[in-house]
């Protein structure tokens, strides 16, 4: 499924309505057997500029502000809770909560001209919520330099530090994203769902706990039909026939 941020006139800002639409699109028919991967892209030269600052301009509207940040956190965490991989396809600038969105996706394929920044500090609104995703994707000192200075990372710097998965020429962005998507579609949906959920569950644990969790999941994996089918197909030197 393709989800396209399509308000380029406002630099695809994550207004409350945009966040609500994004949440609905992520959840739409999520249990369908035909849904295998979600790709998030954007129209225009800016992938996403972050929150709509006009919505945050009044110091009195605490209820609205709380609603904006609450649903934003829901969207970012939802991406990692979905049973299918989510790919950010980025061709341009991603700042603040837009950078947070890229960091929250499972995979990020970006064009060479893309840049990533958390410039909130420059306008008096420190990027504390983007820092959650940033600090879990980047080395701490790289994340903090971005947060303290607001200076952008180039696409290559973002790749070097682990914020994105792959950097390609702009004219190859669609091709490379679809190549990864098609490869994902060759695998069992149920096995990928189990693997994604387990990855995010274990990554925050200490080493012993992580191995305890994943050891049990490996055993559980072998009880699934697709787990046995994949092994039998490998032994018999044939393509597996997945259950979906």
UniProtKB/TrEMBL annotation:
One of its GO terms (biological process) is fatty acid metabolic process. It is found in: Mitochondrion. It comes from Tricholaema leucomelas (pied barbet). PANTHER family: ENOYL-COA HYDRATASE DOMAIN-CONTAINING PROTEIN 3, MITOCHONDRIAL, PTHR43602. GO terms for molecular function: hydro-lyase activity. It comes from the Eukaryota. Keywords: Fatty acid metabolism, Lipid metabolism, Mitochondrion, Transit peptide. This is Enoyl-CoA hydratase domain-containing protein 3, mitochondrial. Belongs to the enoyl-CoA hydratase/isomerase family. SUPFAM superfamilies: ClpP/crotonase (SSF52096). GO terms for cellular component: mitochondrion. The gene is Echdc3. InterPro entries: ClpP/crotonase-like_dom_sf, Enoyl-CoA_hydra/iso, Enoyl-CoA_hydra_C, Mitochondrial_ECH-domain. The keyword Phosphoprotein does not apply. May play a role in fatty acid biosynthesis and insulin sensitivity.
């Amino acid at each position: 499924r393709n989800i396209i941020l399509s308000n380029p006139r406002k630099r695809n800002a994550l207004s409350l309505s945009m966040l609500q639409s994004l949440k609905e699109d992520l959840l739409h028919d999520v249990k369908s057997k035909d849904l295998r991967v979600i790709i998030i892209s954007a129209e225009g030269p800016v992938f996403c500029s972050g929150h709509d600052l006009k919505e945050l301009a009044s110091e009195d509207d605490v209820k609205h502000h709380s609603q904006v940040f609450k649903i934003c956190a829901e969207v970012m965490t939802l991406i990692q809770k979905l049973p299918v991989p989510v790919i950010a396809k980025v061709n341009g600038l991603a700042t603040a909560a837009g950078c947070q969105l890229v960091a929250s996706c499972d995979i990020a394929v970006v064009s060479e001209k893309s840049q990533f920044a958390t410039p909130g500090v420059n306008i008096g609104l420190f990027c504390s919520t983007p820092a959650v995703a940033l600090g879990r994707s980047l080395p701490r000192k790289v994340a903090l330099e971005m947060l303290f200075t607001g200076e952008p990372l180039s696409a290559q710097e973002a790749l070097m530090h682990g914020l994105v998965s792959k950097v390609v020429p702009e004219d190859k962005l669609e091709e490379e994203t679809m190549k990864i998507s098609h490869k994902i579609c060759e695998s069992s949906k149920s096995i990928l769902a189990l693997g994604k959920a387990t990855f995010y569950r274990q990554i925050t644990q200490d080493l012993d706990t992580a191995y305890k969790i994943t050891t049990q999941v490996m055993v559980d994996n072998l009880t699934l039909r697709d787990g046995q089918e994949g092994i039998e197909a490998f032994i018999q030197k044939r393509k597996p026939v997945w259950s979906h």
